[in-house]
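Encode chain A's predicted structure.
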Amino acid sequence: MRMWQNRKAGTPNRARVVAARPGLATRSEVEAAVGRAQVIRRGRSARPQARTTSPHEVGTLLGYARGRECWASVEDSRIDVGPPRSGKGLHQIIGSIIDAPGAVVTTSTRPDNLAATLELRRAIGPVAVFDPQGLGRVEGIRWSPVRGCENPTTAIVRASGLAAGAGFAKGNVSDAAFWHGQTEMALRGLLHAAALDDSGIGQLYRWGLEPASAIEAVGILNRSNDAAEGWGDTLDGIVRMDGRTRDAIWAGVRSALSALADPAVRRSFDPPAGEGFDPASFIRERGTIYLLGTGVGASATSAFIAALLEDITESARQLAAHNPGGRLEPPLGLVLDEIANLCAVPSLPSLMADGGGTGISTHVVIQSLAQARERWGEQAAAAMWDAATLRLILGGSAQPRDLQDLAAVCGERDEEIRNWSRDPNGGRTTS
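Encoded structure for chain A:
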């Protein structure tokens, strides 16, 4: 009986046979959960100012089930899991980029998504490419990590993104939380000092090479009337720590800023006055920015990719706070393909949890749950998975733990199977 089922499922009617098995969603259940009418209803609260009856203004078409359309809402936090060549880009990512009604930030380790969507997104708003490695052969934007860091809050957010590139967040270092926190404090002091002194990215790089060079930043913080209270003393305390502790912290600082050793990359982060990338204007104009980096090459630039993402999302939150209902209109779309190969964005778990309510639509694409655990750590990866309101699992996974977890979520059902056999006398028995 089981063999017949498998042979039957291998015919052209496979989809219909599989769908007919007990335990899978019926046509009416598909429509009620992710159908066209449902996404339009959700859109009335997600985009109350849009006043549209088109599902394309409030969602993205995922595909079809039981002959019915399946839609993701712009307020969904979404995780797609699929190994390489499972169709993530062609069938999901490109559609998410094209369909987004507002500004889009998308990451990738290859320029394929850029090539497929560039002209279509250009018809909606300005297009920019952040490509320190030159993968896309398109002139990229220039963004200053120091921009706005005269504001202590901005310096804290920026340092959080840069510190993620030091690698402590993975949890594979003893007392990782302590070293990460100390690295972040040192970076925020350097950023704050660079902004107050109107220094360029080259000065920030020199300060980050060794603690002795950072004494100049301490002096700027202590002399400036606009410096955050106590920040000069904090940085001075780190610089004057005992040798081993100080050197370990500064190893994290150097790692976070290591991309600046390449003069070409350093130029990407040192725009002329008044010409740097402005996240708030980008969001208002419904722009699209492609963040590119290879899995290997991004190890150097990952801190800056994370910092730029933090800069954009923080700007989005600030804009949303001044809008009716506290929502960004139209929503900002984060389509984060191969994000685990690029950088560990510190705010990503919280964006998954509450971004939809402020008009930030987050779409994370990873190769496996094991990859997420490796990048963000066990607890943060679990928090992201739990916070996702939509989980799309593509075929081809070979991770036993992941498959067992998915099977547990799907639940179990009892199926009656009848077996027929014949005894030596020719009689037939059924069990």
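The radius of gyration is 25 Å.
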